[in-house]
Amino acid sequence: MIVQQIHSGAWPPHYRIPSEAELVEQLGFSRMTINRALRELTTEGLLIRMQGVGTFVAEPKGHAALFEIRNIAEEIAERGHHHSTQVVVMEQIKANQKQATDLELKVGDRIFHSVLVHFEEYIPIQIEERYISSKVAPDYLKQDFTQLTPNQYLTELAPVTEGEHVVEAVLVTKQESDLLHIKHGDPCLSIQRRTWSGALVISSTRLLYPGSRYRLEGRFGL
């Protein structure tokens, strides 16, 4: 019945389906059977279960460009959906050894740190954690990143001439799982990215995607 409702379009993408208790009453199956069915449909990618919010019909998996550096707001708009952003952290810090190495600066140099969550419709699909050289973007903390993305701002300020990616499967922290509305321990995809404009490192960025909601695509030639 659940699958029929989804495939028929009666329950479209992002539709909040009845609760387990309501499905037990409507379908006449046990709570255990309904729970198992919902878990299996979630594993198959037909449903998204958001802790404390509910269970929703999944949109066919979005995709992110692996070899391109694109604006996530544009990717979402191309799918005909609404993009929004939650700003979690915007701060000035002193670079530690790793941050200084990544940004090709000195330990203790002033840098900016931001953490944002990007939403497609009402579903969180990416955490973006970024470290930026204050020399490249001195007004970074003054920007309203609910109105434009850091990618858009930095690209206009310092066009990217070179980039590098490291992609891996990871387990996220409790805070990250809460921000993405997933269970702690659910698998995620991580892209660690550095970008340059000429000889200057623009930023060091970590992009975190729930594995059940996103796929990464790339194309190359030989």
Write up this protein.
The chain has 222 residues and is of the alpha+beta class. 26% of the residues lie in helices and 37% in strands. It contains 7 helices and 10 strands. The strands form 3 sheets. Strands 4-5-6-9-8-7 form a 6-stranded antiparallel beta sheet. The longest helix is centred in the N-terminal third of the chain and has 13 residues, at 31-43. It is elongated.
* Ends distance: 48 Å
Relative strand content: 35-45%
How are the strands of the largest sheet arranged? 4-5-6-9-8-7
What multimeric state do the chains show? single chain
Q: Uncertain segments of ≥5 residues (pLDDT<50)?
A: 63-67
Anisotropy-based shape: elongated
Share of helical residues: 25-40%
Order of helices and strands: HHHEEEHEHEEHEHEEE
> What is the typical, i.e. mean, pLDDT?
85
**Mind telling me the CATH class of the largest domain?**
Alpha Beta
Kindly name the structural category.
alpha+beta
Number of strands: 10
Which CATH-level-2 architecture of the largest domain? 3-Layer(aba) Sandwich
